[in-house]
UniProtKB/TrEMBL annotation:
InterPro entries: Aldolase_TIM, Coproporphyrinogen-III_oxidase, Elp3/MiaA/NifB-like_rSAM, HemN_C, HemW-like, rSAM, rSAM_sf
NCBIfam families: hemN_rel
TM region(s), chain numbering: none
SMART domains: Elp3 (SM00729)
Organism encoding this protein: Paenibacillus jilunlii
Family statement: Belongs to the anaerobic coproporphyrinogen-III oxidase family. HemW subfamily.
Protein name per UniProt: Heme chaperone HemW
């Protein structure tokens, strides 16, 4: 994607649909309960943002599009068709192997809608499944049950969508190691090309945060949570899925190319309420609320903030996001973005992390060791604020 060296336009697009049927108890994403929301007005505002964006930074050939949320699949089939047509109009040139992903919730994906999605170019669907126990699902505020999961996947396959992914969560209230083992087993029986498995984070401004503060959130112990992470990594590996990022597992060649854009610190357009984008070392954040976003889109780009990233910040970001990937960071890629060697900048931190056994080296590439995966945040922190030492 674009970097100051090759000057190519962004080849990745993120679009945010901020509506959900209800609000899950742990969720701090920019999402709003759908009822009474001005959905068509929002989609028209998005259309305007796309139009202005490509006028400002014309796109090249687009390699990945990711529609996230929120729950993009709460759009009705006619709204979905309008939205996908907008995308195609403003980003008309697609790579022949484009990865066009959309997030979906089981229970919001009937066949008609999935057919409209496929017709509009979507070729990868990521389902928020989270767990295979109905009592856990209702305990975290999800609207779907386990039967919905099977039905949604069957619907997707029946319209010809086969590049499917499932999200699972661990560290949930009342979840045991055995429950996670069962969820992973059931997820693997689906024989999908890709799985994402995240740990629950108790975020501020969520119901879970309130319960946590009142000591009323029965989270698994730290030991159980560690056991869960070790279990999921070994089970996925044994089933033939590569852990290509801390929380992501794929059959060879089925890694999410869109997410790899972020982890390689490459450029992407970010469109929609609250969306972030990164183009030519400039980051932006859009206005978050639905109505304020719509309002702002009438008079220009609906930005909350835009700021230039210094070279130092870009280098630190490169390390922090790059080390999330199992392939790690290479001197070659660093030189391509910054025209300098990794060792010129980060020799001290690399040496320290190698000595601690948290990073391993393979030629000009550095990656988290097995032990380092468990202490990712500590490792990433080592690469922040080091330029003053150089
Ligand atoms: S479906 Fe996803 S975005 Fe919507 S409330 Fe639940 S976790 Fe948040």
């Amino acid at each position: 994607m674009t970097n100051p060296i090759n000057g190519r336009p962004p080849e990745a697009v993120y679009i945010h649909i901020p509506f959900c049927t209800n609000k899950c108890f742990y969720c701090d994403f920019n999402s709003y309960v759908l009822k009474d929301q001005p959905v068509m007005d929002y989609l028209r505002a998005l259309d305007r943002e796309m139009e202005l964006t490509v006028k400002h930074t014309p796109p090249g050939v687009i390699k990945t599009i990711f529609v996230g949320g929120g729950t993009p699949t709460v759009l009705k089939p006619d709204e979905m068709a309008y939205f996908l047509k907008s995308v195609r109009t403003h980003f008309p040139q697609w790579d022949e192997n484009i990865e066009f992903s959309m997030e979906a919730n089981p229970g919001t994906t009937d066949k008609d809608k999935l057919a409209v999605m496929k017709e509009g170019g979507v070729n990868r669907v990521s389902f928020g499944v989270q767990a295979f126990q109905n009592e856990l699902l209702s305990g975290i505020g999800r609207i779907h049950n386990v039967d919905d999961v099977y039905r949604s996947l069957e619907n997707a396959r029946s319209v010809g969508l086969h590049n499917l992914s499932v999200d699972l969560m661990f560290g949930l209230p009342n979840q045991t190691v055995d429950m996670l083992r069962e969820s992973i087993g059931k997820a693997l029986e689906l024989n999908l090309p890709h799985y994402s498995i995240y740990s629950l984070k108790v975020e501020e401004n969520t119901l879970f945060h309130t319960l946590f503060n009142k000591n009323k959130l029965p989270l698994p112990s730290e030991e159980d949570e560690l056991e869960m992470y070790l279990l999921l990594m070994s089970t996925m590996e044994a089933a033939g899925y590569g852990q290509y990022e801390i929380s992501n597992f794929a059959k060879p060649g089925m890694e999410s190319r869109h997410n790899i854009t972020y982890w390689r610190n490459e450029d992407y357009y970010g469109l929609g309420a609250g969306a972030h984008g990164y183009v030519k070392r400039q980051r932006h954040m859009n206005i978050k609320g639905v109505n304020p976003y719509i309002e702002a889109s009438h008079s220009g780009l609906p930005r909350l903030d835009t700021f230039q990233i210094t070279e130092q910040e870009a280098m630190e970001d490169f390390m922090m996001v790059g080390l999330r990937m199992r392939e790690g960071v290479s001197d070659q890629a660093f030189r391509a973005q910054f025209g300098k060697s990794l060792l010129d900048i980060f020799a001290g931190s690399l040496k320290k992390m190698l000595a601690a056994g948290l990073i391993e080296q393979d030629g000009d590439t550095y990656r988290l060791s097995k032990q380092g995966i468990l202490f990712g945040n500590d490792v990433f922190g080592e690469f922040v604020g080091v330029l003053t030492e150089v």
